[in-house]
Amino acid sequence: MARNGMSERSLAGSEAGLPMFGELLRHWRLARRLSQLTLATEAEVSARHLSFLETGRTQPSREMVLRLAGVLEVPMREQNVLLTAAGYAPMYRETALGAPELSQVRRALGFMLAQQEPFPALVVDRHWNMLMQNEAARRLFGLFLDPEETAQVPGPPNAVRLTFHPHGLRRYIANWENLAGPLIQQIHRETVGGTPDEGTLRFFTTIATLGTPQDITLQELRVECFFPADGATEELARRLARSGGSA
């Protein structure tokens, strides 16, 4: 009777248009390029049990959902989806970055951005929306992005959108053909360069994340810091800092 009850719960979720746990589990296993046997071994369950979970013949316990999610390195947001699909309450909260309880995190991020001066740094979310930036970023992007043209770029300020949009940085990136492919694939900007009267700017970037976060918002934050790849780029960044943004 317990098995029938579980089957009815799965069927109800399917009829409601919600993803079934087994479908999601298989999705993440394939995304991680693991066989059922490999995943079962790493999760310390039998391959038969894992097969039953994927086909919906067996419903997982809450502990099993979290164990499999851990082995598959499923992000917190998607772990909540897995738990919901299996019939359990979400585990991780999502707190707005501006909430009072994250004030110390905002303070730490502000410190990191300030320390990056006179070179640019951004804080972005999982969609690459720009949540915070230092003055160096404003100065550098101000060389390229005209406010009237930037206003034609839809949506909130977004690092990827501002890179790809015709009214964004795309027209100033000298190695666009080489950059576009990896940028789409990795959602990671490698270089930004080119200004009509200053030659070519060359940057490399690093991406930092917050360690052991217990909140979805914190896990999804990315801090991107730009570093000059040659002396001319470094000198321009320092000159912009001294002049307040005028090259």
Explained architecture:
The protein is of the alpha+beta class and 247 residues long. It folds into two domains: 2-85, lambda repressor-like DNA-binding domains (434 Repressor (Amino-terminal Domain), Orthogonal Bundle), CATH 1.10.260; 100-243, Beta-Lactamase, CATH 3.30.450. The chain has helices at 2-15, 21-31, 36-43, 47-55, 62-71, 76-85, 103-116, 135-144, 147-150, 159-164, 176-186, 216-220, 231-243, and strands at 121-124, 130-133, 203-208, 222-228. It has a four-stranded antiparallel beta sheet with strand order 2-1-4-3, sandwiched between helices. The radius of gyration is 23 Å and the shape is elongated.
In brief:
The protein is α+β, with helices and mostly antiparallel strands. Helix content is 51%, strand content 9%.
User: Mind summarizing the main beta sheet?
Assistant: 4 strands, antiparallel
Task: Please give the radius of gyration in angstroms.
Answer: 23 Å
Provide the number of structural domains: 2
**According to CATH, what is the topology of the largest domain?**
Beta-Lactamase
Find the count of extended strands (DSSP E, 2+ residues): 4
Average pLDDT rating: 83
Oligomeric assembly: single chain
Tell me the helix content.
40-55%
**What is the first-to-last residue Cα distance?**
75 Å
Unreliable spans are 1-15, 188-196
Structural class determined from secondary elements: alpha+beta
Number of helices: 13
Give, in order, the helices and strands: HHHHHHHEEHHHHEHEH
CATH top level label of the largest domain: Alpha Beta
Strand order in the largest sheet: 2-1-4-3
Instruction: Report the sheet-strand fraction.
Output: 5-15%
CATH architecture grouping of the largest domain: 2-Layer Sandwich
Shape field: elongated
